[in-house]
Amino acid sequence: MNITIQPEAIVSLRGFEMPERLGFGTVMAPVMFRARYQDGRWSDGELIPYGPLSLDPAAKVLHYAQSCFEGLKAYRYGDGVGLFRPERNAARMAHSARRLCMPPVPESLFMDAARTVASHCATLIPGNSGESLYLRPFLMGTQPDLSVTASKAYEFYVIASPSEAYHAGNMRLWVEREDSRAAVGGTGDAKVGGNYAASLLSIAGLKERGYDQSLWLNPGNRHTVDELSGMNFFAVMDGALHTPALNGSILEGVTRDSMLALAREQGLEVHEREIDIDDLLALVASGTCSEAFACGTAAIVSPISELGDGDQRYRLQQAPGPVAELLRRSLLDIQEGRAEDRFGWMQKV
Ligand code: COI
Description:
Bound molecules: 2-OXO-4-methylpentanoic acid
Strand content: 25-35%
Radius of gyration: 20 Å
Distance between the termini: 16 Å
Largest sheet: 10 strands, mixed
């Protein structure tokens, strides 16, 4: 694939000044990647200045939400730049696209896009541990047409944001017993905006009640744990690591998979299984479940200090606990190049 680097993109990069405070996802790199799909084929890609998109008000994405996205990170790695498991994101984006009847972005296009953005933004990758260049690829149907049919035209972008981790510190979770984030047979295992939109009402107002995030239950049975709005859930019980098994309504997190691999490597007992919420709360109350944490690309590993259910609060004994600390450190050591990449996760750009 040919990739055009627009001269204006290079000018934007030269003029970019990195702000002192980053936060997560608020500082945007001054360039972005774009490719277009029309008449059954993808265009070549181009690196262009970051800026507003021009969309027809009747574009399918604005009405029927034909869009999906990804999140992956680029790190300073050795003498260059490293992407963490980008092929997993490419595969998941293809899965999400198929679920919404969109043409999957070919893996080669996805990888070229991620590499192009990461390499041109190399000087924007922050250097403190836990910081990175967060890449946000997204795909959307742009055909102007109000009929409820799949778009015939699509655009694929990769934008980038020099960022800190999404959540710092401990999280207090509210067990959401009323609403669902995804439906049975729906899009829970696809990375689509609608899942996140459906979670917002539950999260709104949580802070005032002393919580940070909702913990979603399975939409089919309403009593087993699925995940958080943008992170997978883990609990440590009697020294063993437990996480909800993939069931069609849980997003298959790249960090989730990495946690499982690192835990097994450490000799920890690992269980992917259904976790009943009432059993979990009882085990937290008795101290058998001593720690819990959530993980995701953006958040890395976030300890959970409390689970709230109705007017009951259940405190975890250890937050952060030793397992979360060990796995977080082991992951960052690989991502930031301090440890050998024994799983072959890093791709040098
Ligand atoms: C990620 O971890 O990459 C996510 O997509 C979570 C989020 C900030 C929506």
